[in-house]
């Protein structure tokens, strides 16, 4: 070939036999949040307004019942005297009870502690380590020679390869055929 001539090359695809596939693993730390619902028990303060002290009979109630009974006894006559006495005692007791309430201020506020349950969401961070496959180291054989390549996936039993055939100048091989005294290559 002359200095200006180009070297012809030929490229084609073929199959190579896969000998070994080794996954490349990496341990990756991963954080995730884990949440759950919990029941929390406690107390809540509540203001309650009451209209009386809980005392069933105050001094004005007693005095009103006595005065009402005496007045009813004086008003009634004969058989009606007992009914008038009882009626006067009831009316006098009601009037006296109202006077007791007015003297106590009738209303007051107190604070009660009431038990309560609340649903509370609780969360925590859980740290884990997961293994991830980053790729595969693939060992394969083509033309009686072994090669290794890193690939994104496992190729299976066979691997497609691209073969590039190109002559090399300046490193000519002896002509084929037996030469006298030369070793024979097969």
Overall mean confidence score, pLDDT: 80
Q: What percentage of amino acids are in beta strands?
A: over 45%
Beta-strand segment tally: 4
Order of helices and strands: EHHEEE
- Major beta sheet, strand line-up: 3-2-1-4
**Contiguous helical run count:** 2
Evaluate the radius of gyration: 55 Å
Shape: rod-shaped
The major β-sheet equals: 4 strands, antiparallel
Structural class: alpha+beta
Count of the separate structural domains? 2
Straight-line N-to-C gap? 29 Å
Low-confidence runs = none
Helix content: 10-25%
Notable traits:
2 domains; alpha+beta; 4 strands; 186 residues; 2 helices; four-stranded antiparallel beta sheet; 49% strand
Explain this structure to me?
This protein is of the alpha+beta class and about 190 residues long. The chain folds into two domains: about 10-35 and about 125-165, no CATH class; about 40-120, no CATH class. The protein is about 25% helix and about 50% strand. The chain contains two helices and four strands, in the order E-H-H-E-E-E. It has a four-stranded antiparallel sheet with strand order 3-2-1-4, with no helix packed on it. A hairpin with a 2-residue loop joins strand 2 and strand 3 (about 145-150). Helix 1 (about 60-75) runs antiparallel to helix 2. The protein is rod-shaped, with a radius of gyration of 55 Å. The protein starts with 9 loop residues before the first strand and ends in a 21-residue tail after the last strand. The model has no long low-confidence stretch (mean pLDDT about 80).
